[in-house]
Amino acid sequence: MSGNSSSISKPPSVDPGAIHKDPDMVIFGFWVFMMSDLIFFGVVFAIYITMIGATAGGPGPRELFDFGSLFAQTMLLLTSSLTVGIATITMKHQRSQGSFLFWVVITLLLGLGFLTLELYDFSEMAAKGGVPQRSGYLSAFFGLVPLHGLHVTFGCLWMLVMIVQVLMVGMTDLVKLRFLRLALFWHFLDLIWIGIFSVVYFGGWVYG
Amino acid sequence: MNIMDYGWLGKLSWDSIVFSKLFTNFSVSEVVASTAGSIVIFATVAILFLLTWFRVWGTLWSVWLTSTDHKRIGIMYIVFALVMMTRGLLEGMVMRAQQAAAPDGFLYADHFAQLFSTHGTIMIFFVAVPFVVGLVNYVMPLQIGARDVAFPVLNQISLAITASSGILLMVSLVVGEFSTGGWSAYPPYTGTDFNPGVGPDYWIWAIVFSGAGTTLTGINFTVTILKCRAVGMGFFRMPMFCWTVLCSSILMIFAMPPLSVAALMLGFDRYLDFHFFTNDLGGNMMNYANLFWLFGHPEVYLLVLPAYGIFSEVFSTYSAKRLYGYKSLVFATMSIAVLSFTVWLHHFFTMGQSPTINIVFGIATMLIAVPTGVKVYDWMATMYRGRIRFTTPMIYSIGFLILFVIGGLSGVILANPTVDFQVHNTLFLVAHFHNVLIPGVLFGLLAGYNYWFPKAFGFRLDERLGKWSAYLWIVGFMLTFFPLYGAGLLGMPRRSFSYMDLTFKPYMLVAFIGAMVVLCALVTLILQLLVSLRDRKKNRVPVGDPWDGRSLEWSISAPAPSYNFAELPRVTDRDEFTETKEQGRAYQPPKVYRNIEMPRNNPLGFILCVLSGILMFALVWYIWWLALITALAIIVVVIASTFRWDSEQIIPASQVQQDTERWLELVKNTEPVGRDLENTPQNNGYAKLEH
Amino acid sequence: MDWTAKAPIGLFQKWMQVWGEINRRSYGLAIFPFIVLLIFLFPQSISATESFLMPLGPVAHEQKTHFFWATALTMVAILPVFILVPVILIKYRRKKGKGIYAPKWESYGPLEVIMWGVPFLVIFVLSFMLWRATISLDPYEEIEGVVPPISVQVVGLDWKWLFIYPELKIATVGELVVPVHTPVSMILTSDTVMQSFWIAALAGQIYVMPGMTTKLNFIATQNGKTQGENTQYTGKGFTGQKFDVLIKNEEAFQAWVAQVRARGIALDSETYNRLAMRTTRVEVQKELGTAQMPEHALYFTLTDPQLFQSVVMRYHSGKPLNMEQQPGTEKFGQGEDAAEGAQP
Amino acid sequence: MAEKSGFSVHLRTYLTGYVLSVVLTLAAFWAVPAVGRENKSVLLLVGLLGVAQLTVQLKCFLNVTTQKEGRDNLALILFSTLILLIIVLGTAWIMGNLAMRMHTTM
Ligand code: HEA
Ligand code: HEA
Ligand code: CUA
Ligand SMILES: [Cu+2]
Question: Whole-model pTM?
Answer without folding.
Answer: 0.93
